[in-house]
Amino acid sequence: MSARDNIFARIRRGLGLPTIPLAEERERALSVINDKPRGPRPSQVWQDPISRFIERCQQLSTTTEVVSDISAIPQAVSNYLNQYNLPRQMVIWPDFSQYNWQEVGITVRVGSAKGDDLVGVTGAFCAIAETATLMLPSGVNTPSTVSLLPETHIALLDKKRIVNYMEDAWALYMAEKGTLPRAVNFVSGPSRTADIEQTIIIGAHGPYRVHIILY
Amino acid sequence: MELTSFTFKKNVKKKLSDARLQNNMRRFGGRFVEARAKVMQEVDNLEDIRVAAAAIRDRSLANLDTYLTLFEEQAIQRGTVVHYAETAHDVNRIVLEIAQANQVKKIVKSKSMVSEESGLNDAVIAAGIEAIETDLGEYILQLAKEPPSHIIAPAIHKSVEEVAELFSEHHHTPKSTDIPALCREAREQLRPHFLSADMGISGGNFLIAETGSVAIVTNEGNGRMVTTMPRIHVAITGIEKVLGTLNDFSTILRLLTRSATGQSITNYVSVMTGVRDASNADGPEQSHVILVDSGRSRLLAGRLKQALRCIRCGACMNHCPVYQNIGGHAYGWVYPGPIGAVLTPSYVGLKEALDLPQASTLCGACQVVCPVKIPLPELMRVLREESFSQGLRPWHERLSVTLWRFTANHPKLYGFMTRHVVKLLKALGGSKGLIHWLPGLDGWTEGRDMPAPSGKTFRDQYKAQQDERKR
């Protein structure tokens, strides 16, 4: 008997089930899993997801800026770097390599972040209005490290892709991609800790700053 | 973790007279309570969500082996290796086997309470492998060589002065009590370890049967580091932590983070499925999940089953007047507070933790705040019953309960006895009607006076009143 067999036998005994699993147990479990029932969500007290998202960002110490369209992004990023006196070298997701970074005096490296990268730029698969959360799947074109290792994380978010609840984000992902990637990282603001005297400090192992540019 | 629950009373005495601890507990303990109360106000249907969350957990437990099977099938398909550990000892053995098979020299760990059950760090270090805790609280405690005293705020019992001394001693830096500077110092110390470790060990807040995923919920980002940077990721979690679907997880998450730290969501919520493949730019090449029983399956059959709903938010301990006064270490094992008073006797044996279910006034605060509606006072009562029926209580307690039962079953004798006892108590109360000392109950009267009874029993007074009316 393996450890697995022993554990499963104890579980079934504990639940008062026959030693050999019945086919209907699996079918019953699968039918719930395939139905994916949604639990109750807090009432949607917001008019539109975009204003809710921006309002909730403030509570998380995430800064935001809305720009008119994609072409305004490099200048907006440049202004942000100036404002916080940040270096003008960034590591970025491949999706944004064609942007006109050179024109605004920023040098970029495309791909995964290294331990000493100071500014990282990502997109987002979508965002969640309820909690002002970015959904960042891992992938060749969406390396996880860019939103993790640098001290500053700038996210470029298509404002049409803000959904209301996490359940909506899962449904959207499954509808468009079919299966989960290696990692889905939900990011809600800069990293923090309250492990010393329950005092909230922004900036732990992840970024100190999260800035979201909505286009 | 070394078990000291059997000396609970002694532990409590020590902690109550520890001035530094008492000061720290008073200063920081209430903040979780306030933060939770505030954030719950933004949820207009809290009770509906709690009912749904409890039902989700019950559905998982009722289908536990089926859900684990489905989880395992999905996880294996994505390249994750699923291991089963019957005991805490097996957890250490499995981790060491994986480490040795892959020539692992350095392990970075994010918080895992299950790994505390087995004392994993000691086992790994004894085998010559470096193991570094990376959650700030856990890192502080690793330097201090202490176990955590809270399941989500492990170093809640430490003041900034104590942290400053530890950092200065271990990092050879000038002593600073500036909290942001200390956090920066920890970041700079730990960053090279994240980048050079061969293996990352994390807990698993939940497993998702639908997708074969492991979900972790963190704030510092160390959980993401540990599961992204090293070439091997090992997640260790209890068999009871499986959920059906991603939507089930979303429901539970709404309550977990609010109940734990008073946040509507934590900074990071990561759902990890399988290994790095051609479609990935980063992430571990190997993914392992260790599913731990270690006493859990035993609880499914009995009256304590609801304890397995627990999602480890810590709200019960934050709100417990006993925990607030004695801190987590007094409980003598991994899980303190009301949930610990139920889980510790269940996992290590009632005999080893006899006084934990007694460490409660049964005020009910824990049950009121529990996001998955675990009837904790009721479960502590079940354990109290069991400890009595198994004859584990001390002889004087058993004798007094036996005498009480005999008297209560003989009304005449009961009337005779109580009539004399209340007279005696009235006399003891003196002119102020306050009793300063009671034989055999000096622990109780040490901190307060007992108001003396009027000198007449209820039955006598009631009878007198009835006679009066008849007249």
Task: Give a brief description.
By secondary structure, chain A is α/β, with parallel strands linked by helices. Chain A folds into two domains: 3-35, no CATH class; 49-214, 3-Layer(aba) Sandwich (Rossmann fold). Helix content of chain A is 28%, strand content 22%.
Blueprint of the fold:
The complex is a heterodimer of chains A (215) and B (471).
Chain A: H1 3-15, H2 23-35, H3 49-59, E1 63-66, H4 73-83, E2 89-92, E3 107-110, E4 119-122, E5 126-128, E6 133-137, E7 152-157, E8 162-163, H5 166-177, E9 183-187, E10 192-193, E11 201-202, E12 209-214
Parallel strand pairs in A: 1-12, 2-3, 2-4, 4-7, 5-8, 7-12
Antiparallel strand pairs in A: 5-6, 6-9, 10-11
Chain B: H1 8-16, H2 19-40, H3 46-62, H4 64-77, E1 80-85, H5 88-101, E2 106-109, H6 113-117, H7 120-126, E3 130-133, H8 136-144, H9 160-171, H10 179-196, E4 199-202, E5 206-208, E6 213-218, H11 222-228, E7 232-238, E8 242-243, H12 246-261, E9 268-272, E10 286-292, H13 296-299, H14 315-318, H15 321-326, H16 337-348, H17 365-369, H18 376-389, H19 395-408, H20 411-429, E11 434-435, H21 442-445, E12 450-451, H22 458-470
Parallel strand pairs in B: 1-10, 2-3, 2-4, 4-7, 5-8, 7-10
Antiparallel strand pairs in B: 5-6, 6-9, 11-12
Helix pairs in contact in B: 2-12, 3-12, 9-10, 16-18
